[in-house]
Amino acid sequence: MIRPADLIERKRNGEEHSPEDVAELILAYARDEVPDYQMAAWCMAVYFKGLSGAETFALTDAMIRSGDTLDFGTALGRKVVDKHSTGGVGDKTSISVGPIVAACGVPLGKMSGRGLGHTGGTLDKLEAIPGFRVELTTDEMVAQLRDIGVAIVGQSAHLVPADKKLYALRDVTATVDIVPLIASSIMSKKLAAGADAIVLDVKVGDGAFMKTLDDARVLAEEMLELGRRAGKEVTCLLTDMDQPLGRAVGNALEIREALDTIRGEGPADFTELVLDACARLLAYSDLGIDVDEGRRRAETAVSDGSAFAVYERWIRAQGGDPDPRALADAPVRRSVPAPTAGVVSRVGALAVGIAALELGAGRRTKADTIDHSVGVLCFAKRGDAVLEGDDLAEVHARDEASAAAAVEAVLAAYTIAGEAPPERGIVLDVLA
Ligand code: URA
Fold first, then answer.
1. Residue 95's CB: how many other CB atoms inside 10 A?
2. What is the radius of gyration, based on Cα positions, of the chain?
3. Verdict on whether the full-model pTM lies above 0.85
4. Could you confirm whether 96 is annotated as catalytic?
């Protein structure tokens, strides 16, 4: 094998690697034959010099080959669709989307992650449901997909182990925010999990990795290209993460909101994103329908209660209690009153995400434990008119001191202006 030091030097000098060299480097790293310090130096060289499309595909392919792959399509005899979000504040989309598409006759089996920092993880949210098991064997998952149509589980340690190692290294070496490395990290996991078609929700804004629409488009194009090279159908939704998604931020609060949305009583922005994602997943499925018909079917599954019935069966199948009254309630609730009348022009997603993290809804390090009951409800969103003293938000806390700090932080996340900001929908662009 070519020496890692030579590859680092070549990348530092802006040269393009052969696909074979990329594969050897990644597979050797996964086998612990390349030390972290050399891999970190290579990632930093990539940060400055980038990767070509061919190099990014070789990286993605090698990461997939570093571990096991799944094939639900063969096990179920169906075309398999999947969705993924690049992560944001209040993002409980999969928890609503799963039961809705399953109620429409399309199985959705997902491997989800945990939250780190200000963004929450779907697994942590599901664990707010008493008894819910995030670990299923592949056979259990296939049986549940056949029987109920939805299963959301933790990622197997054997799936894309090279990414697991590389992501942990990037996290501590300032090399996370590099488009080809993010794209290959996300797509390797989706492709290894056996999806035939993928809907990617690329978050844009202050609470997301990608702060601007232009940056988000670059990441989306890179992931679309990886999908194309792998022969898969991919759609990227670029969606707003300049304010929290929906109202709820925090694990049990988000489960309640996901459930409200499945019953047709969710907040407008979150409902729109859920139905849009469902429509596209259904259009990609083997039902043979287009996006408009997918939307109609998703809306019907919500309005006729069939999505809610699937939710209850799904949660019970994974050991949980689907009754929202079983979710933990935080002992302290404090309102965040509007200091003045006007129109909300901004609800900083990052600030609200950090406030929820400080309350105990997230973890700063992998070892932290989560308090599922705490979080923030943002009642007023961008464009809403408020009177002085109206509840902008409500903090759910474990004690008075953390509640007081969060009230201050959430208040600082709000800007109230004299006039309404320009209207902006939740889906900013769609790339396919
Ligand atoms: N999510 C991932 O899975 N990988 C990244 O690199 C960034 C976000």
1. 27
2. 22
3. yes
4. no
